[in-house]
Amino acid sequence: MATQKYDSFKDLRKGKYDWKVQARVMNLWRGYTKKGEPFKAFNLLLLDSKRCRIHAFVPGHVADLLEPSIEAGNIYLFKNFTVKEYKEEEKFRCILKDIQIIFSNETKISRLEENEVCIDKAGFDFYDLADLKELSTQTTYLTDVIGVIQDHDELRLARFNNRLGQPQTQIKFTITDGKTNVNVTFWDQLAEHFDEAIREEDFETPLIIIIGCGRVTKWKEEVDVSNVGATSFYINYNHHCVSLLRAMYDSDFLNIPLPKRYNLCIRATDDTAEINIVLENVAGQKCYGKHAYEMLDKIDENVFPEGLKTIEGKEYTMKLAKKGNSYVAKDVSHVIDFENFTTENEDAQPRPIQESYGEIWVNCNLSSGVYVRK
């Protein structure tokens, strides 16, 4: 029997209706009126087997029909929906895409068991804490961030009436990735849930938080991550970036003052061109399996470290961002031994999560050299 073919969110385009995608519901939320009443319509954040996410909107006229079939965290087969571009004025988009999907009374939703399809529990598109300032002046996109919660034992939930006399709750804390500190403010229901979570469970320390779909703002000229309806949090989540950050913390990296800073630069080629790329921390860590500090701490600065050449001649899929006249690798999706790669591996090959605003995933071969720039 032939295997049934399913679509991926990465292939979405307008003009087609009979889509069939297997996806996990990462989150479900509603908007509220100015009077605080929830809308009947609701929203979903979906993740498919190719690690591609999409925002789904369920209009009010089909909400009662479809909502009983949906529970956050479960996997479903979604059939028959339309693809629609966001309107320019639509704010707080939970992923960096210009399209969303819309369900209708023709949409079919079928529950799938965990052993029927392999889909991650969650997917993220992390933004470096040092780069959040550029997002603080816009309201179009939300973002995902990760960091160590500082002084978590001192966190306290605040209750007060705002200037309109309405009761509110708030909890404030600071997160760090070892080089940048960022303030976080959770409000109302999310603040309550967060306070309950850190009080009721005995978490391993340090507490590492992933904030999904956070709103980046400014308060008193400092960057602050706050919440909207789509925002969620994950404490000490089973994710490779959490493990990486914990390893850095356990090695006392977060307390090490680095006397010198370097840019690790690579020269990469694909079928069309050759460019120079600067590896940021996460990308460099994934390429070499260790932090730059571990590699550069005990070397003679007049001698090129041979260990840096180990990635030459290998193929990577990188997420590149254009910064001035340079390209910066912000993440690496996977690494393949180019000499041993065959077409038999193609179906099992991991795929990029998604294309991002101002950033794009590309395949490249590091055949042309690695060098360090102070």
Automatic annotation (TrEMBL):
Signal peptide positions on this chain: none
InterPro entries the UniProt entry points to: NA-bd_OB-fold (IPR012340), RFA1B/D_OB_1st (IPR003871)
Any matching Pfam family: DUF223
Limits of the Replication protein A 70 kDa DNA-binding subunit B/D first OB fold domain: 5-110
Protein name, UniProt field: Replication protein A 70 kDa DNA-binding subunit B/D first OB fold domain-containing protein
Originating organism: Heracleum sosnowskyi
Upper classification of the organism: Eukaryota, Viridiplantae, Streptophyta, Embryophyta, Tracheophyta
